[in-house]
Design a protein that fits this description.
There is one protein chain. With about 300 residues, this protein is mainly α. The chain has 12 helices and 2 strands; from the N terminus they run H-H-E-H-H-E-H-H-H-H-H-H-H-H. It has a two-stranded antiparallel sheet with strand order 1-2. Helix 2 packs parallel to helix 6, helix 4 packs parallel to helix 6 and helix 4 packs parallel to helix 12. The longest helix is centred in the middle third of the chain and has 34 residues.
Length: about 300
């Protein structure tokens, strides 16, 4: 929502209303895709079993680790990735489970899955930037043909609202599923329970909405005004580019960062105006936080799990 608010197209309250509605929709309809990847595809036990289903303390430490890091970064105004933080925390849980089993043979991290996720993390902001740049370059000449200012403003408003809704839907499908994957791993008992997935997705969507209402303003300011100046067209292009990118990865059940996609897209539309329009200093801080995020979440997960298990 930072792009629409930063471009002064939507008010904070109006943006949050759109966010809540479409996050819940994305979470309930498609959140199960990443839910299964994170909950069942990263840590595997012997004979295909899921060791997380019998480790409630490990799951609590995993959720707390990702939550603590994201909350800390949000307090500092850094838009870090919830998805990356959760994946890092799950890796920490897998390492701890391997350590607590004799010889580490019972629990294994699926490096093939993690490799595909890591490659997607690198491609995600690049694809979003290229797509947003292309959208802005394509739509701009079409909008210049509209000579009636009132009509032009109405068209821009519709475009931004549509893109905001698409971004919120992708956020629900991607981030909510990723954030609640370990919850499904515990309650799902290794099977496919679509009713349970729907309920957990709804629960996660409500949590995300509460977070946006109570704690999202600093990150909104960073994304909306800290990287480059946004107008209605660039806000639309950035949001739509990010939404399409994230939603595409969800179809392959790969948890990527909505945050990285939207920031990549903001950079993409900023480059339409020239490289000088993009704040490299702000991007540098964000980049450091991106690299640190999974590592810090992994270490926190290990430390908290170690503490909870009394090792």
């Amino acid at each position: 929502m930072g792009t629409a608010i930063g471009g002064r197209i939507l008010s904070y309250r109006g943006a949050v209303v759109i966010l809540i509605l479409f996050v819940l929709l994305g979470a309930t309809l498609e959140g199960w895709k990443n839910m299964r990847t994170v909950g069942e595809g990263i840590v595997i036990g012997s004979a295909g079993t899921n060791p997380l289903s019998n480790a409630p303390l490990i799951i609590i430490s995993t959720l707390l680790a990702a939550g603590i890091w994201v909350t800390t970064a949000t307090t500092l105004g850094l838009p870090v990735s919830t998805s990356q933080s959760m994946v890092g925390a799950v890796i920490g849980a897998g390492l701890l489970l391997s350590y607590t089993q004799p010889g580490g043979a019972v629990t294994n991290l699926q490096f093939g899955t993690l490799g595909a996720i890591a490659i997607s993390w690198l491609l995600n902001p690049i694809f979003a930037a290229l797509l947003a740049f292309t959208i802005a370059k394509t739509v701009s000449p079409l909008l210049r043909k509209i000579k009636n200012i009132v009509l032009l403003n109405q068209v821009l408003l519709v475009l931004v609202i549509t893109a905001s809704a698409a971004t919120a839907y992708a956020l629900g499908a991607n981030d909510v599923g990723t954030s609640t994957g370990v919850i499904y791993a515990f309650f799902g008992e290794g099977g496919t329970n679509h009713s349970l997935m729907l309920l957990i997705g709804l629960f996660g969507g409500i949590g995300l909405a509460v977070g946006a209402l109570t704690y999202g303003r600093k990150v909104i300011h960073t994304v909306g005004t800290g990287i480059t100046k946004l107008d209605a067209l660039s806000a639309f292009a950035a949001q739509l580019g990010a939404a399409i990118t994230v939603w595409s990865f969800v179809q392959f059940r790969i948890p990527v960062s909505t945050t990285q996609a939207i920031i990549g897209a903001v950079v993409g539309v900023g480059l339409v105006k020239g490289a000088a329009a993009v704040s490299r200093r702000k991007l540098g801080r964000i980049g450091i936080a991106w690299v640190m995020g999974p590592v810090i979440a992994c270490m926190l997960s290990l430390a908290l799990g170690w503490l909870f298990l009394g090792l």
